[in-house]
Specification:
Blueprint (H helix, E strand, L loop, with lengths): L1 H21 L14 H8 L4 E2 L3 E9 L9 E10 L5 E8 L5 H8 L3 E4 H8 L22 E5 L4 E8 L6 E8 L1
Antiparallel strand pairs: 1-2, 2-3, 3-4, 4-8, 5-6, 6-7, 7-8
Length: 176
């Protein structure tokens, strides 16, 4: 009996940890599938443009309470809104020239793959305009390299490698 209770407690603890990890990443307090349009406006103010399905912000920074005060300038931020009013996904578009190394301190190392493989393995085609993994989403080449952080549901999408440094140039940071 004590063994069964102990095992049940361990399973509940692991499930609780997995739930915290699976949706754990938030940017400025905005959590995908949890935050609402109202939450976003409290965190970021009024959007530059607002549609029923999207909020668009410009000139934001990515600075999730970094210990060294590091900040990455963002050109645009697009938040996709689900029919129930919750935030479905967040697309952060960093300023041109931002590299994967500038984001390493925030995310660490993820699993590298192509964007096509990401779509095929995760089934996350609903986050964009396409419906099948062989289509382009958001005008992104399906062979583009990306890095997936499954536990925090973050995707770094790269344009290409910098010729001089060998670092990847970041096209999008996606919370899905």
């Amino acid at each position: 009996m004590k063994t069964n209770v102990f095992l049940a407690a361990v399973v509940l603890l692991l499930v609780g940890i997995n739930e915290k990890v699976a949706g754990s990443y938030s940017w400025r307090g905005i959590r995908v599938h949890k935050s609402t349009v109202g939450d976003v406006k409290k965190a970021l103010g009024e959007p530059t443009l607002e549609y029923r399905e999207q909020l668009l912000y410009e000139n934001q920074v990515f600075d999730p309470a970094h210990v060294n005060g590091q900040r990455v300038k963002l050109s645009t931020v697009v938040l996709n809104v689900a029919p129930n009013g919750s935030i479905e996904s967040v697309f952060l578009s960093p300023e041109w020239g931002t590299t994967d190394q500038e984001l390493r301190s925030f995310f660490g190392k993820g699993r590298k793959m192509t964007y096509k493989k990401f779509l095929a393995t995760t089934g996350e085609v609903r986050i964009g305009a396409g419906t099948r993994p062989n289509e382009k989403l958001h005008y992104i080449d399906l062979d583009s390299p990306c890095e997936v952080f499954s536990e925090s549901r973050v995707l770094l999408l790269y344009q290409r490698r910098d010729v001089v440094s060998g670092d990847y140039l970041v096209q999008l940071i996606l919370f899905y």
